[in-house]
Design goal:
Order of helices and strands: HHEEEEEEE
Distance between the termini: 91 Å
CATH class: Mainly Beta
Structural class: alpha+beta
Number of strands: 7
Number of domains: 1
CATH topology: Immunoglobulin-like
Largest sheet: 4 strands, antiparallel
Radius of gyration: 25 Å
Length: 151
Amino acid sequence: MASHSQIFIKPLFVIPLSHNHNSEKHKAEKNALSMRQKLSRILQIDTTAKNENQGPSDAPNSEIMIPKVVVRPNPFFSSITLDVTCAQGKHVIVRMFDEDDKIVKMFSWFLVKGINITNISEVEFLPTGVYSLDIVDLEGDILYSTHISKS
């Protein structure tokens, strides 16, 4: 009868669960929390910074960063053109909310120094009403805000 022998394999290396490992895990968790907080700020609606006209909002430095925005046509039907003058290159998020403060359009946009023009399409299926449109930076600060109407 053949005998069964057990084979033991010794590991080549062992990674101890040291303070450094826990520290790295803590850093990763902290970074993830920071990213969630930044995203939350981007998606939040700052109603105090919204402005009824088409000028820059009262957010800090908005006059310096984005001195001029033209939103046309207003009222809109099938598309909206944004003409944004920017003082320096900056990555922003453009958000459009309905009357219930639900985001109906959102996209990122890298603004170059000078004049930037983009078209927001596929809005013809939105219900008639008033919409809020704002431009926020990646820190969540509102650089521009206005209201536009859908006819």
